[in-house]
Amino acid sequence: MVILDGVHCVKHAVRFGAAVELLVTRDRDAALRLAGALAPDVADLVAAATSVDPALPARLPGVRPGSELVGFARRPAGGPTAAARTAAAPTAGPTVLLDNPRNPGNVGAVIRVAAGFGAAVRSTGSIDPWHPAVVRAAAGLHFATSVERATELTGPLFAFDPTGEDLRGVTLPDDAVLAFGAERHGLSAAVRARADRLVAIPMRDRMSSYNLATSVAIGLYHWSLAGGR
Fold first, then answer.
1. Per-residue pLDDT tens over the stretch 8-41
2. Confidence (pTM)
3. Count of domains in the chain?
4. Which domain holds residue 156?
5. What is the DSSP secondary-structure string of the chain?
6. Are residues 97 and 199 located together in one domain of the fold?
7. Does 81 map to a domain?
8. Which carries the bigger pLDDT value, residue 94 or residue 62?
C-alpha cells in the first residue's frame, strides 16, 4: 500500500489512475476547503472520507502531524497506471537514475520533475522511493510515471559530473539513462565506471553544486530541446 499525505497527493494519485482504497480525514472542513480551491475534481471523493481521531495521522509513518487528509492506495505493479500511460507524451522520456540519494524530499522533488517530462525514475541506496515522505514531496506524482528501485538498466548511460564534457554540446537520446549522484557525495565509482559518457552542467566559478532536482530538471529540459518532448 502507498500512503498519500494530503490533498495534493490524493489529487494527483486519483488523476493518474491510483486505486485509492481508503481516505481518512482528521478535519473534513479543512480538507473540503482545500479540495474546493485546488482540486474540485476530487471534492466528492474527499467528502466521502472517513473521519478519524485527529491524532491518527501523526501515528502513520512519514505523515505530517497536521495532515488534513490521508489516502491509502495500491502501488501499481511494474510501471505507471493505464491513466498515466494515456496521458503521457507520445515519445517516452529518458530514465533518471538517482545514485544513492540521501534526502527523501530531494527524491520526491526529482520524481515531480520527471513526471512532468514523462521520464521514469530509478534509484539505488537505502531510501525507499515509495516512502510516504517521498510520495508527499512528489505531490503524489509517482502514479504519473514509473518509479522503482534500480535493477537492470538498458540504454546509454550519461553520468552527470563536474569533470564531464559540457552538456550544451551533447545530444541526449530518448532511451538515455541520466545518472545523478547525491549533492554532497556525487556519483559512486560503480556508476562512473559504467557510464558511456560523463556530462557536466555549466556553472559559474566558485559554485559548488546545484540542487539535485534542479540538475535533473536541467538535464531533462536539455533532452526536450532536441525534440524528445
1. 999 999 999 999 999 999 889 999 999 999 899 9
2. 0.89
3. 2
4. 86-228
5. -EEEESHHHHHHHHHTT-EEEEEEES-HHHHHHHHHHH-GGGHHHHHTPEE--TTTGGGSTT--TT-SEEEEEEPPSSS--HHHHHHS-SS---EEEEES---HHHHHHHHHHHHHHT-EEEE-SSS-TTSHHHHHHTTTGGGGS-EEE-----S-EEEEEEEEEEGGG-PPPTT-EEEEEBTTTB--HHHHHH-SEEEE----TT-----HHHHHHHHHHHHIIIII-
6. yes
7. no
8. 94
